[in-house]
């Protein structure tokens, strides 16, 4: 089996799933307290709907951004090794000239 370089690792997908779950929880907290034509329900202005749920949803979106940008330590080490080998090869080429 060949070792393929994917853009995301296992950790990134786990962090993405956690962020998505946080967003879903935020939207669930925003729902409820519907007002009909016959009766006004003041529950639509509760702190849960107006303050807490949007903050939780925003934190979910921020966590997804972090999951996309996050680079595990193994990948960082591999990229630094690759950069080192590229620098060596460029030095060898310049020394040959």
Task: Give me a quick take on this structure.
It contains three helices and no strands. With 97 residues, it is mostly helical.
Features of this protein?
single chain, 97 residues, mainly alpha, 3 helices
Question: Could you describe the 3D structure shown?
Answer:
It is a single chain. With 97 residues, the protein is an all-alpha fold. The chain has a domain at 10-71. The chain has three helices and no strands. The radius of gyration is 24 Å and the shape is rod-shaped. The mean pLDDT is 82. Helix content is 70%, strand content 0%.
Residue share in helix? over 70%
The Rg value, from CA coordinates, equals: 24 Å
How would you describe the shape?
rod-shaped
**How many runs of DSSP E, i.e. beta strands?**
0
Taking pLDDT < 50 over at least 5 consecutive residues as the criterion, the unreliable ranges are none
Please report the number of helical segments: 3
Q: Characterize the main sheet.
A: none
The topology string of helices and strands comes to: HHH
| C-alpha end-to-end distance | 39 Å
Our estimate of the beta-strand percent is under 5%
Query: Which structural category do the helix and sheet elements fall into?
Result: mainly alpha
Quick check: average pLDDT? 82
């Amino acid at each position: 089996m060949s070792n393929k370089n994917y853009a995301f690792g296992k950790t990134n997908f786990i962090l993405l799933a956690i962020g998505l779950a946080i967003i879903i929880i935020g939207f669930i907290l925003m729902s409820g307290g519907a007002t009909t034509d016959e009766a006004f329900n003041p529950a639509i202005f509760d702190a849960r709907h107006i303050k807490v749920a949007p903050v939780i949803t925003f934190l979910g979106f921020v966590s997804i951004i972090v999951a996309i940008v996050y680079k595990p330590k193994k990948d960082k080490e591999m990229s630094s090794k690759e950069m080192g080998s590229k620098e060596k090869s460029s030095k060898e080429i310049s020394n040959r000239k």
